[in-house]
Amino acid sequence: MDNVRVVKLEAEDLQIFKAIRLESLKMAPSAFANTFADWSSLSDEAWLDRMKIPVFAMLKGHEPVGIMGLMLQRGERRSHRATIIMVYLRESERGSGLANDLLQAVMSFAKEVGVRQLELNVNHTNNRAMGHSLLRAAWLRDGR
Fold it and tell me: What is the DSSP string of 103-133?
């Protein structure tokens, strides 16, 4: 696909972050612990605060179509761990391989900053995500 790329979002990308995060919460509400209402009323300052963790977007041209964040753990015994959060890819892009590209970018970044253990939480009722080939191939299932 031409003009499709993964970018690590910076403060100047606030509008991109807001657009794709709010879309994710609106279009896939059961996939997230937070709600559209939780995030839509945030000030720009609060949005920027949430961008202090690494956040990656899949852009198609200049339009965001996917997002993943990386919550790095802190502390001497946990600094080698991180959790992938805010996972979303627009419905029209699913099945195209873009989710894998986005995940690979996040995993590469995690490795660069010393992460050796990644965690990904998926709602057990999200059958599509639970059956995704990426989860079957690369992750150990824990829980339900």
Answer: HHHHHHHHHHTT--EEEE---TT-HHHHT-H
The pLDDT tens digits for 61-75 are: 999 999 999 999 888
Given the structure tokens 């202090």, which residue do they identify?
A: 52
CATH of 4-138, one of 3.40.50.10540, 1.10.3720.10, 3.40.50.720, 3.40.630.30: 3.40.630.30
Q: What is the pTM of this model?
A: 0.86
pLDDT on residue 130:
46
pLDDT greater than 70 at residue 128: no
Alpha-carbon distance of 125 to 48, in angstroms, equals 31
- Which residues lie below 8 Å from residue 143, measured CB to CB, with a gap of 6+? 124
